[in-house]
Amino acid sequence: MKRDSRLSGVLHILLHMARQPGPQTSEILARAMETNPVVVRRLMAGLREQGLVRSEKGHGGGWVIARDLERITLRDIYEALGQPEILALGNRTEAPGCLVEQAVNAALGSAFDEAEALLLRRFGEVTLAQLSADVVAMMPDATEAMTLENAHEA
């Protein structure tokens, strides 16, 4: 099963945007993610609908973060993406009348629900400001500022 990496991708985009002055085009953000600008626009659409980003048209336009980083949590972004499935595991449902399947599904379902609730609670505690600070802490002392063009250089 393919994993859904949209949350990770959007966080990547937003953290790059947080370090750049002014609007960033889909083309520039796509280069930072090594993807197509259409993918960036699709990812950003849900965030725009939730008021997390906005797009500015015309010359010098592009995407900007619409809220203070302290006011955007991982949960906000997760919800703006349409709440993708968190767990790849699921219950078997081929024999709903089977008592063994019922017992297994009850035990697993309870564990899945607890794990999801814990993860969502944690998502609500982590802000983009915290992640941005983590990025800064990981940066080597450099005379050259990190740009979208040089951020991925080894």
TrEMBL record:
Domain of life of the native organism: Bacteria
GO molecular function: DNA-binding transcription factor activity
Entries under Pfam families matching the protein: Rrf2
InterPro entries, per database record: Tscrpt_reg_Rrf2 (IPR000944), WH-like_DNA-bd_sf (IPR036388), WH_DNA-bd_sf (IPR036390)
Gene Ontology cellular component terms for the protein in this record: cytosol
Record-given protein name: Transcriptional regulator
